[in-house]
């Protein structure tokens, strides 16, 4: 089972999330009644729909993780799942995302199709460390 499959299996047990095709057209999504929260694009690459406010709040912590890729101006973050710790990080961030979406006014809902797929190139950690 791939890291993304393990993460999806765990997240599907959460009562607020259900599976659907990703609005961007690639992969599966997990969504709440209001929003798409997670896009599973491959066996290891996941886009997580935080909010601009949540990304600003955790910007330094997110930027310090080798598993996270930030795209300027995007309310999505890309998480590369290499190990069980990355899956645990994703679980924590999904919890942050659910809370952020719950507190966001309905008038500021962005389109779910604006995820980072095709806007991020994720290198394996070994290749990134060799730079």
Topology:
Layout: H1 3-11, E1 18-21, E2 28-31, E3 36-40, E4 45-49, H2 52-63, E5 68-70, E6 76-80, H3 84-103, H4 125-129
Antiparallel strand pairs: 1-2, 2-3, 3-4, 4-6, 5-6
Helix pairs in contact: 1-3
Strand content: 15-25%
Question: What is the average of the pLDDT values?
Answer: 85
Q: How many strands?
A: 6
Give the helix tally: 4
Report the sheet with the most strands, covering strand number, pairing sense and barrel closure: 6 strands, antiparallel
The rounded Rg comes to 14 Å
The strand order across the widest sheet is: 1-2-3-4-6-5
The backbone outline, from C-alpha atoms, is globular
Please provide the ordered H/E string of secondary-structure elements.
HEEEEHEEHH
Structural class based on helices, strands and sheet pairing: alpha+beta
Distance between the termini: 30 Å
How helical, in percent, are the residues?
25-40%
Q: Show unreliable segments.
A: 107-113, 127-131
Overall description:
Residues 107-113 and 127-131 have low confidence and may be disordered. Helix 1 packs across helix 3. This protein has 131 residues and is an alpha+beta fold. The longest helix has 20 residues, at 84-103. 35% of the residues lie in helices and 20% in strands. It contains 4 helices and 6 strands, in the order αββββαββαα. Strands 1-2-3-4-6-5 form a 6-stranded antiparallel β-sheet, with helices on one face.
Structure summarized in a few sentences:
The protein is of the alpha+beta class and 131 residues long. The protein contains 4 helices and 6 strands, in the order αββββαββαα.
